Amino acid sequence: MTVWDDLTGQAEAIAVFRAAAERPGVAVAMADSSASDGQVLTAPPATDDHSSMTHAWLITGPPGSGRSNLAFAFATALLGPGTPEGDEAARRQVEARTHPDLILLSTEGVIIKMDAVKEAVARSQYSPSVGRYRVVVVEDADRMVERTSNVLLKALEEPPERTVWILCAPSEADLLPTIRSRVRTVRLRVPSVDDVAELLQRRDGVDAVTAERAARHAQSHIGMAHRLATSPEAETRREETLRAALGIRSVSAAVNGAARMIAIAGDDAKAITLERDAEERKAVLRSLGLDEGQAIPARLRGQLKDMEDDQKRRATRSLRDGIDRILVDLASLYRDILMVQLGREQAVINRELAREVTDAAAAATPSATLATMDAITLARQRIEANVAPALALEAMLVSAIRR
């Protein structure tokens, strides 16, 4: 088993990283002796030699394409003893996020905080302790505000010789131009439904029918496909959302539908975070030498409060992600309606709702369906801009009224 086995649909990107891990030679910043102000310049990353190695990488691709999985696979190959297949001991440590030369910069809140970036930058200056490199993986690099990104930029401009940065973001446009100029970009594509279904069968032991349905409903989003395939409740909540949208016949129904969708997103978020929160609390209490239900001494309450604050931030992001996922599912529904209106029934995603989709297609024109799809996009943008989700969903569902 190699570190690349659990990746799917990204053969070209895997080939780039395997070659880079096999033939190291980090491109570090070089001081320009002709610069009077002592400016540090960085040689531009190679773009045509797939076997080259550089100090900073950017993995881009749509949500669910496997950016983080590929980043950690590459990190494992770099932290191992020099084989592109990855060392088993290093793989276990990376999976547990306990490797001494691995630095993870991520957030379960809305943005990555500046203090976290400063800490990662400071740690990146040390030489590796057991591996060939010290590797810094930045998940969701697009979640940094500009002043935070500038802290990261300084580290990329003056990198230590044996430190490698691996950034992940949906697209290059989500990062500052100055950061984009100092990284080598590897772009991922959306894996096919068949690729994702095959991965679910091989990795998670899911039967072929369930795997295909989950991959299709998730529109090849690997993480969401895994959840739909392994959680019947998640699949049920998704179907309820689509049926609620198909039943909108009035403004009052749109308002009630929006409230129900937010409740569904909340239930989904709780299902994701509740078990993890409980495990975290047990681990913290155990580390403090306390039993569940035991009175917490005043001097230790601050540590528990910090944990609870982190859990609240994670719950907020999980709810926002859940609402966004509902909007993505609704976009797939109205795409199906449009496909039926244009005579492309074979391209329908939500085949289990074929009769309802056909009825909805007959009740509207293609232009009206396109207007609803535009409203869904606008609702996502509004929520991203901190408009109240209920108002954004209500406005979107009003455009979906069919009589």
TrEMBL record:
Entry's EC annotation: 2.7.7.7
Gene3D superfamilies in alphabetical order: P-loop containing nucleotide triphosphate hydrolases (3.40.50.300)
InterPro entries, per database record: DNA_Rep/Repair_Clamp_Loader, P-loop_NTPase
UniProt KW keywords: Nucleotidyltransferase, Transferase
Molecular function via GO: DNA-directed DNA polymerase activity
Claim: Kinase is one of the keywords in the record: no
A Pfam family hit: DNA_pol3_delta2
Coiled-coil annotated spans: none
Biological process (GO), any one: DNA-templated DNA replication
Transmembrane segments: none
Alphabetical list of PANTHER family matching this protein: DNA POLYMERASE III SUBUNIT DELTA (PTHR11669:SF8), REPLICATION FACTOR C / DNA POLYMERASE III GAMMA-TAU SUBUNIT (PTHR11669)
Name of the featured protein: DNA polymerase III subunit delta
